[in-house]
Amino acid sequence: MSFQISGLSQAMLDNLGNLGFTEPTPIQQQALPPVLAGQDVIAMARTGSGKTAAFGIGLVEKLDVRRFAVQGLVLCPTRELADQVARAIRELARSRHNVKVLTLCGGTPIGPQIGSLSHGAHIVVGTPGRVKDHLDKGTLTLDRLQTLVLDEADRMLDMGFEEAVNAIVARSPERRQTLLFSATWPEHVRQLSERYQQTPVSVTVEAGAEASALAIREVFYEVPEGQAQKALAGLLSTQQPSSCLVFCATKQQCDDVVSFLTQQGFGAAALHGDMDQKDRDQVLILFANQSCPILVATDVAARGLDIDDLPLVVNMEPARSPETHTHRIGRTGRAGNQGVAVTFFSPSGAHKIARLEQVRGHGIEPLDASDLVSATPAPWRPARVTLCIAGGRKEKVRPGDILGALTGEAGLPGGVVGKITIQDYQSFVAVDSAVADKALKRLEQGRIKGRRFRVRALGPGL
Protein backbone atom coordinates (compact mmCIF):
# COMPACT_ATOMS: atom_id res chain seq x y z
CA MET A 1 0.00 0.00 0.00
CA SER A 2 1.69 3.22 -1.14
CA PHE A 3 -1.05 5.72 -0.25
CA GLN A 4 1.11 7.29 2.42
CA ILE A 5 0.38 10.91 3.33
CA SER A 6 1.30 12.31 6.71
CA GLY A 7 -1.68 12.81 8.99
CA LEU A 8 -3.87 9.96 7.76
CA SER A 9 -5.17 7.55 10.39
CA GLN A 10 -4.55 3.82 10.06
CA ALA A 11 -8.30 3.27 9.81
CA MET A 12 -8.49 5.59 6.80
CA LEU A 13 -5.44 3.94 5.19
CA ASP A 14 -7.06 0.52 5.61
CA ASN A 15 -10.32 1.82 4.12
CA LEU A 16 -8.53 3.41 1.17
CA GLY A 17 -6.86 0.08 0.49
CA ASN A 18 -10.25 -1.66 0.51
CA LEU A 19 -11.60 0.97 -1.88
CA GLY A 20 -8.76 0.34 -4.33
CA PHE A 21 -6.76 3.55 -3.71
CA THR A 22 -3.24 2.33 -4.46
CA GLU A 23 -1.47 5.69 -4.57
CA PRO A 24 -2.54 9.35 -4.38
CA THR A 25 -3.24 11.29 -7.57
CA PRO A 26 -1.31 14.55 -8.09
CA ILE A 27 -4.16 16.67 -6.67
CA GLN A 28 -4.43 14.42 -3.61
CA GLN A 29 -0.66 14.42 -3.11
CA GLN A 30 -0.51 18.22 -3.14
CA ALA A 31 -3.83 19.20 -1.51
CA LEU A 32 -4.27 16.63 1.25
CA PRO A 33 -1.41 17.73 3.54
CA PRO A 34 -2.67 21.35 3.89
CA VAL A 35 -6.28 20.13 4.07
CA LEU A 36 -5.42 17.79 6.94
CA ALA A 37 -3.44 20.59 8.60
CA GLY A 38 -6.56 22.78 8.65
CA GLN A 39 -5.32 25.33 6.12
CA ASP A 40 -7.46 26.99 3.46
CA VAL A 41 -6.79 25.60 -0.02
CA ILE A 42 -7.62 26.83 -3.52
CA ALA A 43 -7.04 24.04 -6.01
CA MET A 44 -7.41 23.84 -9.78
CA ALA A 45 -7.75 20.40 -11.30
CA ARG A 46 -9.87 18.92 -14.01
CA THR A 47 -12.72 16.46 -13.54
CA GLY A 48 -11.46 12.95 -12.91
CA SER A 49 -8.33 14.11 -11.08
CA GLY A 50 -9.42 12.70 -7.73
CA LYS A 51 -10.31 16.01 -6.12
CA THR A 52 -13.36 14.62 -4.28
CA ALA A 53 -11.11 12.38 -2.23
CA ALA A 54 -8.71 15.30 -1.75
CA PHE A 55 -11.29 17.14 0.33
CA GLY A 56 -13.47 14.16 1.34
CA ILE A 57 -10.68 12.39 3.21
CA GLY A 58 -9.98 15.58 5.13
CA LEU A 59 -13.65 16.04 6.03
CA VAL A 60 -13.93 12.52 7.42
CA GLU A 61 -10.61 12.53 9.26
CA LYS A 62 -11.41 15.77 11.12
CA LEU A 63 -14.89 14.76 12.29
CA ASP A 64 -15.82 14.51 15.93
CA VAL A 65 -18.39 11.75 15.43
CA ARG A 66 -19.68 12.11 18.99
CA ARG A 67 -20.77 15.68 18.21
CA PHE A 68 -23.98 15.28 16.20
CA ALA A 69 -23.85 18.59 14.36
CA VAL A 70 -22.99 19.71 10.82
CA GLN A 71 -19.20 19.95 10.80
CA GLY A 72 -18.64 19.77 7.04
CA LEU A 73 -20.58 21.42 4.20
CA VAL A 74 -19.90 20.78 0.50
CA LEU A 75 -21.61 23.03 -2.05
CA CYS A 76 -21.95 21.71 -5.63
CA PRO A 77 -23.47 23.34 -8.74
CA THR A 78 -25.76 20.43 -9.69
CA ARG A 79 -27.68 17.66 -8.02
CA GLU A 80 -25.84 15.06 -10.10
CA LEU A 81 -22.47 16.23 -8.77
CA ALA A 82 -23.83 16.48 -5.22
CA ASP A 83 -25.10 12.89 -5.37
CA GLN A 84 -21.75 11.72 -6.71
CA VAL A 85 -19.79 13.59 -4.01
CA ALA A 86 -22.08 12.32 -1.24
CA ARG A 87 -21.60 8.71 -2.39
CA ALA A 88 -17.83 9.15 -2.44
CA ILE A 89 -17.78 10.67 1.07
CA ARG A 90 -19.95 7.83 2.42
CA GLU A 91 -17.42 5.34 1.06
CA LEU A 92 -14.55 7.28 2.63
CA ALA A 93 -16.49 7.43 5.92
CA ARG A 94 -16.46 3.64 6.25
CA SER A 95 -13.27 4.19 8.26
CA ARG A 96 -15.38 5.79 11.02
CA HIS A 97 -18.46 4.53 12.84
CA ASN A 98 -21.89 6.16 12.56
CA VAL A 99 -21.00 9.03 10.22
CA LYS A 100 -24.17 10.56 8.77
CA VAL A 101 -23.96 12.27 5.37
CA LEU A 102 -27.04 14.11 4.04
CA THR A 103 -27.72 15.39 0.52
CA LEU A 104 -29.77 18.60 0.19
CA CYS A 105 -30.65 19.45 -3.41
CA GLY A 106 -33.45 21.11 -5.31
CA GLY A 107 -35.74 19.17 -7.63
CA THR A 108 -36.91 16.94 -4.78
CA PRO A 109 -39.49 17.55 -2.00
CA ILE A 110 -38.11 19.54 0.90
CA GLY A 111 -40.26 17.79 3.53
CA PRO A 112 -38.26 14.55 3.77
CA GLN A 113 -35.05 16.59 3.91
CA ILE A 114 -36.42 18.52 6.89
CA GLY A 115 -37.22 15.22 8.59
CA SER A 116 -33.71 13.90 7.99
CA LEU A 117 -32.13 17.12 9.28
CA SER A 118 -34.18 16.89 12.47
CA HIS A 119 -32.20 13.74 13.32
CA GLY A 120 -28.89 15.51 12.79
CA ALA A 121 -25.97 15.06 10.39
CA HIS A 122 -22.18 15.31 10.38
CA ILE A 123 -21.65 16.28 6.73
CA VAL A 124 -24.07 17.98 4.33
CA VAL A 125 -23.60 17.96 0.55
CA GLY A 126 -25.95 20.13 -1.47
CA THR A 127 -26.72 22.75 -4.06
CA PRO A 128 -26.55 26.41 -2.93
CA GLY A 129 -30.23 27.18 -3.54
CA ARG A 130 -31.59 24.33 -1.44
CA VAL A 131 -29.00 24.75 1.32
CA LYS A 132 -29.97 28.43 1.56
CA ASP A 133 -33.66 27.42 1.71
CA HIS A 134 -32.97 25.26 4.75
CA LEU A 135 -30.96 28.02 6.41
CA ASP A 136 -33.85 30.46 5.84
CA LYS A 137 -36.33 27.97 7.32
CA GLY A 138 -34.11 27.32 10.32
CA THR A 139 -34.01 23.60 9.55
CA LEU A 140 -30.24 23.78 9.02
CA THR A 141 -27.72 25.55 11.23
CA LEU A 142 -23.99 25.94 10.67
CA ASP A 143 -22.93 27.01 14.17
CA ARG A 144 -20.53 24.07 14.50
CA LEU A 145 -19.26 24.10 10.93
CA GLN A 146 -15.54 23.43 10.70
CA THR A 147 -14.96 23.01 6.95
CA LEU A 148 -16.73 24.61 3.99
CA VAL A 149 -16.01 23.18 0.51
CA LEU A 150 -16.93 24.94 -2.74
CA ASP A 151 -16.70 22.23 -5.40
CA GLU A 152 -16.66 23.21 -9.10
CA ALA A 153 -16.65 26.85 -7.98
CA ASP A 154 -16.32 28.19 -11.52
CA ARG A 155 -19.47 26.41 -12.66
CA MET A 156 -21.35 27.50 -9.54
CA LEU A 157 -20.66 31.12 -10.38
CA ASP A 158 -21.50 30.56 -14.07
CA MET A 159 -24.89 29.22 -13.01
CA GLY A 160 -25.71 32.32 -10.98
CA PHE A 161 -25.28 30.90 -7.48
CA GLU A 162 -23.01 33.66 -6.16
CA GLU A 163 -25.78 35.37 -4.15
CA ALA A 164 -26.81 32.09 -2.52
CA VAL A 165 -23.17 31.21 -1.76
CA ASN A 166 -22.66 34.63 -0.18
CA ALA A 167 -25.72 34.09 2.03
CA ILE A 168 -24.48 30.67 3.13
CA VAL A 169 -20.98 31.91 3.92
CA ALA A 170 -22.47 34.80 5.93
CA ARG A 171 -24.14 32.25 8.23
CA SER A 172 -20.99 30.20 8.67
CA PRO A 173 -18.51 30.69 11.54
CA GLU A 174 -15.73 33.13 10.72
CA ARG A 175 -13.19 30.70 12.10
CA ARG A 176 -13.51 27.84 9.65
CA GLN A 177 -11.51 26.08 6.98
CA THR A 178 -12.55 26.97 3.42
CA LEU A 179 -11.58 24.72 0.52
CA LEU A 180 -12.18 25.93 -3.03
CA PHE A 181 -11.90 23.47 -5.93
CA SER A 182 -12.32 24.53 -9.54
CA ALA A 183 -11.60 23.21 -13.03
CA THR A 184 -10.55 26.71 -14.16
CA TRP A 185 -9.35 29.88 -12.41
CA PRO A 186 -11.16 32.81 -14.00
CA GLU A 187 -11.00 36.18 -12.27
CA HIS A 188 -14.32 35.80 -10.43
CA VAL A 189 -13.11 32.56 -8.80
CA ARG A 190 -9.98 34.36 -7.57
CA GLN A 191 -12.17 37.14 -6.18
CA LEU A 192 -14.23 34.51 -4.36
CA SER A 193 -11.06 33.16 -2.79
CA GLU A 194 -9.99 36.63 -1.66
CA ARG A 195 -13.34 37.17 0.10
CA TYR A 196 -13.71 33.80 1.81
CA GLN A 197 -10.22 32.42 2.42
CA GLN A 198 -7.34 33.24 4.74
CA THR A 199 -3.86 32.91 3.15
CA PRO A 200 -4.89 29.84 1.14
CA VAL A 201 -2.43 27.26 -0.13
CA SER A 202 -2.57 27.31 -3.92
CA VAL A 203 -2.52 23.96 -5.74
CA THR A 204 -2.53 23.54 -9.53
CA VAL A 205 -2.47 20.30 -11.49
CA GLU A 206 -1.72 21.05 -15.12
CA ALA A 207 -4.47 19.83 -17.43
CA GLY A 208 -2.07 19.29 -20.31
CA ALA A 209 0.12 16.91 -18.37
CA GLU A 210 -2.88 14.98 -17.13
CA ALA A 211 -4.43 14.73 -20.58
CA SER A 212 -1.21 13.26 -21.92
CA ALA A 213 -0.95 10.79 -19.07
CA LEU A 214 -4.57 9.75 -19.53
CA ALA A 215 -4.02 9.05 -23.25
CA ILE A 216 -6.68 11.24 -24.83
CA ARG A 217 -6.43 11.33 -28.61
CA GLU A 218 -7.93 14.51 -30.08
CA VAL A 219 -9.39 14.73 -33.58
CA PHE A 220 -10.86 17.81 -35.29
CA TYR A 221 -13.15 17.67 -38.33
CA GLU A 222 -14.05 20.62 -40.52
CA VAL A 223 -17.71 20.08 -41.44
CA PRO A 224 -19.81 21.98 -44.01
CA GLU A 225 -22.46 24.25 -42.50
CA GLY A 226 -25.51 22.29 -41.37
CA GLN A 227 -23.89 18.87 -41.76
CA ALA A 228 -22.69 18.23 -38.19
CA GLN A 229 -25.54 15.85 -37.34
CA LYS A 230 -24.80 13.67 -40.37
CA ALA A 231 -21.11 13.71 -39.48
CA LEU A 232 -22.00 12.60 -35.95
CA ALA A 233 -24.10 9.69 -37.23
CA GLY A 234 -21.23 8.69 -39.51
CA LEU A 235 -18.71 8.86 -36.67
CA LEU A 236 -20.92 6.77 -34.37
CA SER A 237 -21.51 4.22 -37.13
CA THR A 238 -17.77 3.90 -37.68
CA GLN A 239 -16.72 3.82 -34.02
CA GLN A 240 -19.75 2.07 -32.43
CA PRO A 241 -18.55 2.97 -28.92
CA SER A 242 -19.95 1.33 -25.80
CA SER A 243 -20.83 4.85 -24.67
CA CYS A 244 -20.45 8.36 -26.05
CA LEU A 245 -21.01 11.80 -24.53
CA VAL A 246 -22.02 14.47 -27.05
CA PHE A 247 -21.74 18.13 -26.01
CA CYS A 248 -24.10 20.78 -27.38
CA ALA A 249 -24.23 24.52 -26.81
CA THR A 250 -27.98 24.78 -26.07
CA LYS A 251 -30.89 22.72 -24.77
CA GLN A 252 -32.65 23.00 -28.13
CA GLN A 253 -29.58 21.68 -29.92
CA CYS A 254 -29.54 18.69 -27.54
CA ASP A 255 -33.16 17.85 -28.38
CA ASP A 256 -32.54 18.30 -32.12
CA VAL A 257 -29.50 16.00 -32.10
CA VAL A 258 -31.36 13.31 -30.11
CA SER A 259 -34.33 13.54 -32.48
CA PHE A 260 -32.05 13.11 -35.51
CA LEU A 261 -30.13 10.17 -34.02
CA THR A 262 -33.35 8.45 -32.91
CA GLN A 263 -34.74 8.75 -36.43
CA GLN A 264 -31.56 7.06 -37.69
CA GLY A 265 -32.06 4.19 -35.23
CA PHE A 266 -29.47 5.11 -32.58
CA GLY A 267 -30.14 4.80 -28.85
CA ALA A 268 -29.72 8.37 -27.60
CA ALA A 269 -31.09 10.57 -24.83
CA ALA A 270 -30.79 14.24 -23.88
CA LEU A 271 -29.65 15.73 -20.58
CA HIS A 272 -30.33 19.40 -19.91
CA GLY A 273 -31.86 21.81 -17.41
CA ASP A 274 -35.39 21.80 -18.83
CA MET A 275 -35.90 18.15 -17.88
CA ASP A 276 -37.62 17.01 -14.69
CA GLN A 277 -35.18 15.77 -12.06
CA LYS A 278 -36.73 12.29 -12.16
CA ASP A 279 -36.12 12.07 -15.93
CA ARG A 280 -32.55 13.36 -15.55
CA ASP A 281 -31.79 10.77 -12.87
CA GLN A 282 -33.18 7.98 -15.05
CA VAL A 283 -31.19 9.07 -18.10
CA LEU A 284 -27.98 9.12 -16.06
CA ILE A 285 -28.65 5.61 -14.75
CA LEU A 286 -29.31 4.29 -18.27
CA PHE A 287 -26.11 5.91 -19.54
CA ALA A 288 -24.00 4.58 -16.66
CA ASN A 289 -25.52 1.12 -17.24
CA GLN A 290 -24.69 1.18 -20.99
CA SER A 291 -28.42 0.83 -21.73
CA CYS A 292 -28.40 4.15 -23.55
CA PRO A 293 -25.05 4.38 -25.33
CA ILE A 294 -25.31 8.02 -26.47
CA LEU A 295 -25.88 10.92 -24.06
CA VAL A 296 -26.37 14.38 -25.58
CA ALA A 297 -25.87 17.10 -22.98
CA THR A 298 -25.18 20.75 -22.27
CA ASP A 299 -22.05 21.68 -20.31
CA VAL A 300 -23.99 22.51 -17.14
CA ALA A 301 -26.01 19.30 -17.17
CA ALA A 302 -22.95 17.14 -17.77
CA ARG A 303 -21.02 18.68 -14.88
CA GLY A 304 -20.44 16.02 -12.28
CA LEU A 305 -20.81 13.00 -14.54
CA ASP A 306 -18.56 10.26 -13.25
CA ILE A 307 -18.11 7.57 -15.92
CA ASP A 308 -14.61 6.08 -15.80
CA ASP A 309 -14.82 4.07 -19.02
CA LEU A 310 -16.08 6.64 -21.55
CA PRO A 311 -14.29 5.92 -24.83
CA LEU A 312 -15.64 8.80 -26.94
CA VAL A 313 -16.52 12.47 -26.38
CA VAL A 314 -17.88 14.59 -29.24
CA ASN A 315 -18.22 18.37 -29.45
CA MET A 316 -20.96 19.27 -31.94
CA GLU A 317 -19.23 22.64 -32.22
CA PRO A 318 -16.20 24.18 -30.50
CA ALA A 319 -16.65 25.11 -26.85
CA ARG A 320 -17.11 28.76 -25.94
CA SER A 321 -13.67 28.89 -24.31
CA PRO A 322 -10.43 26.84 -24.27
CA GLU A 323 -11.06 26.12 -20.57
CA THR A 324 -14.47 24.61 -21.32
CA HIS A 325 -12.93 22.59 -24.16
CA THR A 326 -10.35 21.14 -21.77
CA HIS A 327 -13.06 20.29 -19.28
CA ARG A 328 -15.14 18.54 -21.97
CA ILE A 329 -12.41 16.35 -23.39
CA GLY A 330 -11.32 15.42 -19.87
CA ARG A 331 -14.42 13.25 -19.62
CA THR A 332 -12.71 10.54 -21.67
CA GLY A 333 -9.41 8.73 -21.16
CA ARG A 334 -9.92 8.33 -17.42
CA ALA A 335 -8.87 5.65 -14.92
CA GLY A 336 -6.11 4.42 -17.23
CA ASN A 337 -8.40 3.90 -20.22
CA GLN A 338 -7.81 5.13 -23.76
CA GLY A 339 -10.12 7.88 -25.00
CA VAL A 340 -10.94 9.81 -28.16
CA ALA A 341 -12.22 13.41 -28.22
CA VAL A 342 -13.74 14.64 -31.49
CA THR A 343 -14.61 18.25 -32.28
CA PHE A 344 -16.70 19.31 -35.28
CA PHE A 345 -16.42 22.86 -36.56
CA SER A 346 -17.77 24.73 -39.56
CA PRO A 347 -16.16 27.80 -41.19
CA SER A 348 -18.25 30.03 -38.91
CA GLY A 349 -16.65 28.43 -35.85
CA ALA A 350 -13.07 28.59 -37.07
CA HIS A 351 -12.29 31.58 -34.80
CA LYS A 352 -12.80 29.34 -31.73
CA ILE A 353 -10.30 26.85 -33.12
CA ALA A 354 -7.85 29.72 -33.68
CA ARG A 355 -8.29 30.76 -30.04
CA LEU A 356 -7.58 27.20 -28.93
CA GLU A 357 -4.44 27.13 -31.08
CA GLN A 358 -3.27 30.39 -29.51
CA VAL A 359 -3.69 29.04 -25.99
CA ARG A 360 -1.96 25.77 -26.82
CA GLY A 361 0.85 27.39 -28.76
CA HIS A 362 0.62 25.06 -31.75
CA GLY A 363 -1.57 24.54 -34.80
CA ILE A 364 -4.49 22.14 -35.21
CA GLU A 365 -4.73 20.08 -38.41
CA PRO A 366 -8.41 19.30 -39.11
CA LEU A 367 -9.53 16.22 -41.02
CA ASP A 368 -11.99 16.17 -43.91
CA ALA A 369 -15.47 15.08 -42.75
CA SER A 370 -16.85 14.13 -46.17
CA ASP A 371 -16.61 10.37 -45.50
CA LEU A 372 -18.48 10.78 -42.22
CA VAL A 373 -21.22 12.93 -43.76
CA SER A 374 -21.82 10.43 -46.55
CA ALA A 375 -21.62 7.27 -44.40
CA THR A 376 -24.66 4.99 -44.14
CA PRO A 377 -25.98 5.02 -40.55
CA ALA A 378 -25.25 1.74 -38.74
CA PRO A 379 -26.87 1.83 -35.29
CA TRP A 380 -26.06 -0.94 -32.82
CA ARG A 381 -27.84 -2.63 -29.95
CA PRO A 382 -26.95 -1.35 -26.46
CA ALA A 383 -24.78 -3.74 -24.48
CA ARG A 384 -27.24 -3.85 -21.62
CA VAL A 385 -30.90 -3.31 -20.76
CA THR A 386 -31.85 -1.69 -17.46
CA LEU A 387 -34.73 -3.18 -15.47
CA CYS A 388 -36.64 -0.89 -13.09
CA ILE A 389 -38.08 -2.50 -9.96
CA ALA A 390 -40.87 -0.67 -8.10
CA GLY A 391 -39.24 -1.10 -4.70
CA GLY A 392 -36.24 0.46 -3.01
CA ARG A 393 -34.69 1.45 0.30
CA LYS A 394 -38.04 2.14 1.93
CA GLU A 395 -38.95 -1.53 1.34
CA LYS A 396 -35.51 -2.60 2.66
CA VAL A 397 -34.41 -3.80 -0.80
CA ARG A 398 -30.64 -4.30 -1.07
CA PRO A 399 -28.40 -5.03 -4.07
CA GLY A 400 -27.82 -8.57 -2.79
CA ASP A 401 -31.56 -9.23 -2.79
CA ILE A 402 -31.86 -8.31 -6.48
CA LEU A 403 -28.73 -10.26 -7.43
CA GLY A 404 -30.05 -13.30 -5.58
CA ALA A 405 -33.44 -13.06 -7.28
CA LEU A 406 -31.73 -13.12 -10.67
CA THR A 407 -29.03 -15.72 -10.05
CA GLY A 408 -30.41 -18.00 -7.33
CA GLU A 409 -31.66 -21.56 -7.89
CA ALA A 410 -30.10 -22.16 -11.32
CA GLY A 411 -30.99 -18.70 -12.54
CA LEU A 412 -28.84 -16.35 -14.60
CA PRO A 413 -25.04 -16.49 -14.29
CA GLY A 414 -23.69 -13.63 -12.18
CA GLY A 415 -21.54 -12.33 -15.02
CA VAL A 416 -24.55 -11.09 -17.01
CA VAL A 417 -25.71 -8.81 -14.18
CA GLY A 418 -24.24 -5.31 -14.14
CA LYS A 419 -24.63 -2.27 -11.93
CA ILE A 420 -27.41 -2.23 -9.32
CA THR A 421 -28.72 1.14 -8.09
CA ILE A 422 -31.07 1.41 -5.10
CA GLN A 423 -33.20 4.53 -4.60
CA ASP A 424 -35.86 5.25 -1.98
CA TYR A 425 -38.83 3.86 -3.89
CA GLN A 426 -37.34 2.05 -6.88
CA SER A 427 -34.27 0.10 -7.93
CA PHE A 428 -32.41 -0.39 -11.20
CA VAL A 429 -30.36 -3.35 -12.41
CA ALA A 430 -28.42 -3.65 -15.67
CA VAL A 431 -28.39 -7.01 -17.44
CA ASP A 432 -26.81 -8.13 -20.70
CA SER A 433 -29.14 -7.44 -23.64
CA ALA A 434 -29.06 -11.09 -24.72
CA VAL A 435 -30.73 -12.22 -21.47
CA ALA A 436 -32.92 -9.16 -20.82
CA ASP A 437 -36.23 -10.92 -21.55
CA LYS A 438 -35.32 -13.87 -19.35
CA ALA A 439 -34.22 -11.56 -16.53
CA LEU A 440 -37.43 -9.53 -16.77
CA LYS A 441 -39.60 -12.67 -16.51
CA ARG A 442 -37.52 -14.00 -13.62
CA LEU A 443 -38.05 -10.81 -11.61
CA GLU A 444 -41.74 -10.56 -12.54
CA GLN A 445 -42.46 -14.14 -11.52
CA GLY A 446 -40.08 -14.33 -8.57
CA ARG A 447 -39.90 -12.59 -5.21
CA ILE A 448 -37.58 -10.04 -3.64
CA LYS A 449 -37.59 -9.85 0.16
CA GLY A 450 -40.53 -12.24 0.02
CA ARG A 451 -42.58 -9.84 -2.09
CA ARG A 452 -43.45 -9.37 -5.73
CA PHE A 453 -42.67 -6.02 -7.30
CA ARG A 454 -43.63 -4.49 -10.64
CA VAL A 455 -40.72 -4.61 -13.09
CA ARG A 456 -40.25 -2.90 -16.44
CA ALA A 457 -37.47 -2.56 -18.99
CA LEU A 458 -35.97 0.87 -19.68
CA GLY A 459 -33.96 2.26 -22.54
CA PRO A 460 -34.35 4.07 -25.87
CA GLY A 461 -37.06 2.40 -27.93
CA LEU A 462 -38.37 0.28 -25.04
TrEMBL record:
InterPro entries: DbpA/CsdA_RNA-bd_dom, DEAD/DEAH_box_helicase_dom, DEAD/DEAH_RhlB, DEAD_box_RNA_helicase, Helicase_ATP-bd, Helicase_C-like, Nucleotide-bd_a/b_plait_sf, P-loop_NTPase. The keyword NADP does not apply. Residues 215-375 form the Helicase C-terminal domain. GO terms for cellular component: cytosol. A motif (Q motif) lies at residues 1-29. CDD domains: DEADc, RRM_EcDbpA_like, SF2_C_DEAD. It holds the Pfam family DEAD. This is ATP-independent RNA helicase DbpA.
